[in-house]
Amino acid sequence: MRIVFIHRRGPGQFLHLAPYLASEGWEVTLICETMDRPLPGVRTVRHRAEHAPHGRADATPHFATPEQHVRIGYRVAETLDALARIDGPPDVVYGHMGWGGLLFAKDVLPQTPLLAYCEYYHRPEGGDAGFDPADTVTRDDRQRLRLRNSAQLLTLDAMDGGISPTRWQKGRFPAAYQNRIAQCHDGIDVRLCRPDPQARLTLPDGTVLRAGDPVVTYAARDLEPYRGFPEFMRAAARVAQAHPDVRFVVAGGDGISYGRPPAHGRNWREVMMAETGLDPARITFLGTIPHAALIRLFQVSAAHVYLTYPFVLSWSVLEAMACGALVIGSATPPVAEVIEDGTNGLITPFFDIDTLAARMREALDSRTTFSALRAGARRTIAERFALDSRLRRQQALIGSLTGRRPAAQRTAMGAA
Fold first, then answer.
1. Could you tell me which residue ranges the Glycosyl transferase family domain spans (predicted)?
2. What CATH code is assigned to 2-187+387-415?
């Protein structure tokens, strides 16, 4: 079997699946714009970068993103065409639909099954847009979001099947296409992400943290409102007053992955340190850290805080649960799809700083009483998200497309 993966910033969600299929004897190629690491057994082919156009006097508002997606689609199509002329058509193409990379895949390979990774469909209600009460969704916002979905809509119409990682994320997509979308998470390596009572994490100042220490942790790709960083910091400042021995350890960069940066050229770390007055000696900012260090962070955590707008579910919260961390999560989808309050973690309203601080204090004051929740968290990931089982299911879903039946006949994938 020959498969071509497509992802703008490879390998993305195909980090485990691509080398797994290669190990199963598949011939695997990844087409991408940037690549942060080589994958064993996977051929990587990069296309020219396409940046969003800016500064044109005749530009129509919000056209920059759709135009960039079209340009990316053209680059991927050129690459697919070149590969097909050299190698022949693959058995299946599987790509992330979010950046336009799949727009013209069917025009190049009309007889090749096309599978789309369906991560997030933008809507002006029920998700990240307008979630913060201080943000009003304007007509301009609605138009921007509609245009941002244009590449996804064209891809949904062309695809033979799709995969979405959670039930809530799948449910964001138009109902007309949901019978072609299966729910299957990418998977969590539960052998790597596991509890370790002997875990140690050395901080930059030389402090060694151990499992059982009064450590409250937080992790995100970037420290920003979408992942509840301001709420975490406000609650941490309150907890620090009641617990003189607590140490807060934060992993994440100072950039912006989602949403908007703060005013005056500062980052959210600087803004929240100034607002809360939290003693710098009580909190350690690790920045972006290697994955192995992130796992140790989860293993030594007395309480791990994961807050998010209704948006894409982070791998990190599932990895923390697999490590047996006591996760305090926000009562937002799709977090509530995974964490059941009092069974495998604790849940708090996203904007309720008092409740979040109380949950953090509870975790610190009663560290030994939450062993059942920690075990429940680990069990949830092992039963529902274990990498081995998710890889086998993804392989089966991909295999279900290779009969090359017309898309109109292929309507049962969403129930697979």
1. 25-191, 211-376
2. 3.40.50.2000
